[in-house]
Write a structure and sequence with these properties.
Structural class: alpha+beta
Distance between the termini: 69 Å
Helix content: 25-40%
Number of strands: 2
Strand content: 15-25%
Radius of gyration: 25 Å
Number of helices: 2
Largest sheet: 2 strands, antiparallel
């Protein structure tokens, strides 16, 4: 947790190249995506116990299209005209 401030930085590596492959942009990219969707990401960990990553995203509101009654009637008339 001492390096948590560097965890989501681009090209920040908290280990040697020989330990793990990669470029150091993965978590930075994930953070940007989550932030752009209005969410948040963080990590918690302990030495010799590993780390857990958490993230949140805002709930989607499912907007139902409002159909005005005269629009339905108008569409029904058009369909009858076509048939």
């Amino acid at each position: 947790m001492a390096y948590v401030g560097k965890l989501f930085g681009a090209f920040q590596r908290l280990h040697a190249m020989t330990e793990f492959s990669g470029t150091g942009i993965g978590l930075a990219t994930v953070q940007r995506i989550i932030n752009r969707h209005g969410g948040r990401i963080w990590a918690e960990g302990a030495v010799n116990q590993g780390a857990t990553f958490f993230f949140t995203l805002p709930a989607l509101e499912r907007a139902r299209p409002k159909v005005v009654p005269h629009e339905k009637a108008s569409l029904a008339r058009r369909v009858k005209e076509i048939i």
